User: Fold these one by one.
Assistant:
Number 1:
Amino acid sequence: MTLSKWFMAVGAVLIGLSACGPLNEGSTASQLGGLVMGRVTGAEAQPVSGSSVPQDQILSNPGKYIRVNIRDLNRWDTSVQAGSNANRATWVDSANISVTFENGIVVATRGLVRDLMAADVSQSWAAIRSGGGEAQRVHEFLTNMDGISTELLQCRIASQGREVVERLQIKQNTTRFEEKCGNENLQFANVYWVNDAGTIIRSLQAISPDAGYLQIDIF
Amino acid sequence: MPKGICLVSSVATAIATGAIGQEVTATYSLYGTPGLLEMPTAQTAPENALAATFSYTEGLGQVTLTFQVNQRLSASFRYANVELFNDPPESGTEREVERGFDLQYRFNNETTYVPAIAVGLRDFLTPGRFQSEYVVASKSFGDNLIVTTGIGWGAMGTRDGFANPLGGDFEVRPAPDLPGGQLGSDQWFRGDAAMFGGVEYQINDRWGVKAEYSTIDYTETAFGVVRETESPVNYGLTYRPRPGVQLGLSYLYGTQLGVSGSFELNPNARATGSGLDKSPPPVKVRPADSLAAESWDRTALPDRALRRALAGLLEIENITLTGLELTNTTARVRYINSSFRSEAQAAGRTARMMTQVMPPSIDAFILEPERRGIPISAITISRRDIEQLENRAGGTAAMLDRSGFGDAGGSQGLDAVASDESAFSWGLGPYFRINPFSNDGSVDVDLGLSLRGVYRIRPNLVLSGAIEQSVVPPEDDPTGVERTPDIQNVRSDGSLYGNDGVPVLANLTLNHFSRPGTNLYGRVSVGYLERMFGGVSGELLWKPVESSFGLGIEVNQVAQRDTDMGLGFDEYDYDVTTGHVSAYYDLGNGYHTQLDVGRYLAGDWGATISVDREFDNGWVIGAYVTQTDMSYEDFGSGSYNKGVQVTIPQDFFTGTPTRGSYGNTFRTRVGDGGARLQVDGRLYDVVREGHLPDLSDTWGRFWR
């Protein structure tokens, strides 16, 4: 094969950008086109930041909104409740990323690079309610091979004293708890701010090694 | 404040990889295998790594694909464009394209005092211009220095060789007397041996240097590689700008420079993690007071309204509802998944959408994925399980245990959902094809535009075709020699097809798919089935949904098309009846095999066996070999059909849902023996993704 033919082969990729028609939707050519354009315009790298819900609306509708800051993406957004199942509620944001909570503790995410597929956090919540203590967690992740990886984690929850949390110019007295969890594979530390009514109003919770931490404000 | 989520040990990578990785600093040689420059080392690449290495030195260009099958075994396939001495060598030189295979097995892991030791075969098929066998040991000292020494036979035993220490019959290496492309095992580890060695020092994460004493001599012998050598010592510099990329510069034989580049992918390391799929809707749980309902008011909520609502919801997921049957307690849906590589994920998304709209009395969902207009399985799910297991630890495994898998039901009772889409669709895009010349071993590319059209007469009866216009047409076989005069040129004339510079009819086929019985699938294809043949193809497959085993039979009556790729069959006046009995077996642990026994296009009888390493995330790396009753002389160089195939799903790179994939088959040579009809829609590949073995592989995505 001549050198010019090799250049032609590279040209095939460029021709791919012009692929059109219903049969080519989702084709290699159109996917490559999207990727290339994303790189050129930087569209895919831009963090989405900001809330589409005004502050007044959040404050005047307690229990209707939460804010989730995906720290690894430098992105935060307002989420609304999309469903509930027993004692768990799923909240979804404008980018269709969802977080499911049980008593304010994350038990699942969808739409992140490495989702927490499921979790059992009941002992963690019981320890918080008791002012601290030991807990055992179960976390499940989706592997690169489309299987489920289960991590059994030993956790210690301790109160770190009183702390005033200010959100949207509103101050609240809270008790701060830190939960340190680990096993032979993973180690992380979550932080919870619990108001005097016993509700987690702010937290910093680990999702997975790839997805990092979420900072969650519950209004 | 937490700083991050720590991975405590390498075991933690199991979350990301699903496998325990090996800390490896091996670099790739000019031959595309872990090694020094020309000489191998006992190091291995990360498990399951697939590396493409391009290298060039004066008179020798190589492209090598190396797959680290497991932690110990690696296999390589190589194209080499090499300048060889003629026979006799005084008569000059000639360029040839050579294909070759390598294998290497590492016996042990390196310990504090014991080096890693490996045995290998390089270019082990005849004629094997680089054919060598070796035993090599590598020992690291500290984190950066690796010392290697080994003993080589064959090409690696041609410089400073000594009498074979194995003695006896091994002292003489016989001249190859087999046709090309066969195992030259009677030569392995025979003849003179020589000791080689080298060192490699990794300066930092990116830069490394290496030096070796090569025992490959380049004397002026018949079919010897043309090389000007002044020194057996070679030097190299490696640069790894990012993980998976290695660039190399080398100074060889005291006379010339060489360059190389290695690009490594690993199915265990998906850059997009578990994917960037958008969140599915959460399960809508029925109110507790509605669970006792035994039916619903069909006047207030007619079936038609439910169909419309569910179709709209599934459309969000790019899933097309094609049929719905409702009883008081069950809902049976038939759907086409156009979005997700994993049918398990499509099933999970469909089930969650059903919870949004189905009346509370419906307690069971029967999901029937459809392909090519026929249902390929039925997945029966309890609605209570969906409600109870969502986001629950252990919920994925429990969902698989509690779901039922079986053959899809019939069409009776199923209300078809009219498609909003036009029966006709089209697409214009590029095509890129590698054209192997007959038997001289060279390859050429064909690049152009393809206009495709599909008309769905019925869901299972589809007329489709493609017209191609080559922009860079393939060249004629430069040899002009018919190397198999006694055999019909069923493939060796491939370069003559569609090279006139005018639009050609690549294919025009009417395909009909059917379900003739329980666990049975049927296909009939009529028309211009492929570029070189047209006719009729019929296939019947028996494949129980829960079984790892399938059995199929295919019969084709085809004629060879004219090289202008118009409508005619006159140029060759050749028709043939071909067909195969095929057995398919999922061996488990990621291995899959297929055996086809029957008659091929040239009228030869034989069998093809293929073994694939199939990764659950869609990667497939496999090899096949075909042996027929055609003589080696008639087949020509290469002796029989064999090759390597690689398929990588698109979502591995993009992270977003798509059913597309990148794939190619790398053949040694394309001869007329062992040539099989290329027909679209072979049944096993159509149905298998909806069956339990494949569903289980990706069941982790059910809740994704």
Number 2:
Amino acid sequence: MPELPDATFTWLDPLLTDEAWPHLALILRVFLLLGFGFLLLRFSWRLRSERQGTLSGVWPRAMTGFFLLFLVAIAWRQAHWQLFGRRNENFVAFMQRYDRREFNPAHRVRPGRIVDRKGRILAGSRVTEQGLQRVYRYGPVFGHALGYNHPVYGLTGLEAAARSVLLGGGLRSREDLIAMGAELIDRERHAEGPTLMTSLDVDWQVSAYELLEGRRGAVVVLDVRNGDVLAMVSRPEFDPNRLHPRLFAGQVPDAPLLNRALSGQYPPGSVYKVLIAATALQDGFSGTLDTPPDGFTTSPANPRIRDHQYYTAEREGRVWRGHGAIGLGEALAKSSNVFFAQLGVRSDWDAHVRTADAAGLLHPISLWERPEATLTVKPARMPQLSNNAPYGIAQYSIGQGDLLVSPMHMAMVAAAVARGGQTVYPRLDGKMPVRTGGWICSAEHAETLKWMMFRVVREGTGRGIDLAEIPVAGKTGTAQTGAGRESHSWFMGFAPVSEPRWAFVVLVEQGGYGSQTALPIARDLLREGVREGWLKP
Amino acid sequence: MTARKTTEKKRGQAPKKQVKKRGLKKRGQTPKKSAKTTGGKSRGGPPSGDKSGSFFYFPIFLLVMAGQLLVLGARTAEGRVLMYSNLWPLALWALSGAVLCLVLKGGRFSGSSVLVSGGLLLSGIGVLVRSRMSGVVPDVSDMNVLIQPLGVILLLLAWMMTRKGRVKILQPFWGLALLAAFALAGGMLLLGTRYRGGLYAPGGMTPTELLKLFVPVAAAGFFAKTISRWHGRPPWFPPFAQLMLLLVVWAGFCALLALQRDLGLVLLLSLILLVVLICATGRVSWGVGALGSAVAAGWGVVRVFAHGARRVEAWMDPFADPTGSGWQVLQGLSGLYAGGLAGTGLGSGRPDRLPIAGSDFVYAVYGEELGFLGSICLLFLFAHLFRAAILATRRQSDDFAHLFAAGITAAFVVQTLVNIAGVVTLLPITGITLPYISQGGSSYWVTSVWMGCLMGLSETNPSGSKRKARKD
């Protein structure tokens, strides 16, 4: 290899000073691009004039076309990464983590804000020395509703499902297109992703959170008309701003990371009787059933299903005489296990499954749906039964046995009754279309059921929530969880009765009777809402 | 394909415009286009208008100078001192380019000037990109001063050997070229040393680059010899004996290369053969069938070879293993994203962040610094060169010359497209270099020979149209 003379030189330095160089560099870059373009133009003209003379050699046009198509595909693919790489969340994540080009705008890309239905900020991003940090304004209050986005512990919940939208991914609307165009020109200024408006409401959420203080359980509030999730609280809570390593260390007592509202699995107990009543009404049940004081069973081998008054009386040394022959409305108001066990067995098992399916219990339901990610309600666990197992059906009919549901499911049931029988799927994104599911019963029967639930509040087990401010319909539930353990306490309902707007569910783990623990929480929630004015009857 | 009539007949009677007919719709039909001015050049050849002699040498020189200034400025901004050795590649490029233009002028070059100017511009861009990487990216150095002058010498030799129908002197050597290709592939297998998964001859040379010249010669010779067998057959019935011969020889050759794990070269050479096959038979359908079976076979081969499978996986989903198999591709793409629409400016990117930036991923370096706009310009430049090369192919009336031109064109096009497609994840990474821009002498020189051949071929023999029509 020949060696050519080499030395340093300085005669270019006057051009390369700090003052002159930036301008000169800009001029040179523009010149380079324009000159290149100009030359290409001349080449095109020249080529056109060169395409003369005899062209007899075979070269199929399809081949030329294929090559040109390939060039276009290359340009398209390159644009996909080079211009619109921001739309690919994995790519942005890779660059933020592994790209050491400090000028790469990906390092300044941060997820957009999450706001509630009135525009109050729930989560935002901050650039610190350590990098990007997600800030949750309400801390643990929205911990489960939003999930978290943490550099070490990753993403969960809505933060995970909405990640690509928050980073500016996807092209859904014209605003997205405009944002993308603006981004091409000035990428630093458009480094923060778009703001995401959720259906959540800070008022409902904060007050439900405070009412659950010191409990393990969940509260869900839905807008009956469109399925908007107004509140979704689960406690014990965690603070997404300060995730502690202890949270992730194997078996943690009370599982604070579990979103009980969506993923909890609980026996529903008596609140499930509403669905059984819907099935029976749909099957044409009317009239009365006798409720013998010593209970009901399908065969002598099985223990008898009794009303809770039987046990209370037994404890107090009294004799329980039974409700006698009662109708459906009275049975619901008194929450008679004996009645509903008989009622359930009268219906076909397939009819029960149909109703559960119509209520949306059997399939995952997404609160947030995008092609790239979803956030779903865990399907209920349905017992595997048939008409040959009447005792199982009898247990199912009082919300016990192998049946496990999440609080969100029962909120959907309450909303379905309030809406006249049709299920509405919950949504966290107000821009999502309203999605309705099956009919748990006809509109006529739903109207009957609605007033039966009102009767529960007026004269039955739910008397504690018979508010003067707002007429409420509801159902209590006390779900047994095994021998020697306190029952789960449920209350589900909707208000106002004549023109329902809000459906709600309160679950307190091992809270005892539904009317003693869950119901007061629901009552206080509604009272506070009326008092503060965000709940108008 | 070659039953041709002279254009003489209609020449006198067509002052009005004729309908353009490109390509042969029917065998034996001759598309004609009369020169705009009847008093122009000789028949057959491209009428070199008053401007076709100019190669835009000075505009291109100016452009590359501006680029070099940008590179030097960025180098100073980084705090490095300027050395005369930084200027040598540009000076040698300018000198070689000037010599090239002067020799072409002196030799009364009458072919496609787009090939000359486009090649000049492309090699100028190559000088800039390499100069930008020198001292930053390992293996890239300014001091390899032999590349440019030797490239021009090879180019001129190739030009002189192929111009004006002289290419036919290569025809008798097609068998030799085939033997040489086998010998080269086999010899590398025996003597080569392994580095980064590829085989290299002592001194880091890659003599397998020569295959990119031998294979077009061999393929063109084979098809020129057997062309009558391929014609006049129904589309579903290729000649059995010839096809079997071709398949057996080709399979053996590919096996030799596959053992060297050079799957990129297998792909490139197979596509060259495919294009020659299509041009020889005029049947795209046979080509498509061959392509289909080749893709199926390639799929099987890739599954067998571990490093091939890894590359395909990295291509299908680079995020599956971002720090392993996807690392290189994703670093290249990160550079592209960092560059954005306008780029960071020549010299201001970070090619040192990119593994193997000099050869496989040079397009990512270019795209980072010149931006999407610059990349589109480069793609257009390639498109112009492709069209000029295709035009040169279509100009040929001799069987061997035509097929040889088709092979060279295919080599140039495929090499370019496969390299760039690998960077932007349209195809898996193949280890193929980008003509004239990637670092490395062998690749540069082979590209020079290609360009020389295409330049020579684009000059049609003035007496070509008088040649006798092939009888068959």
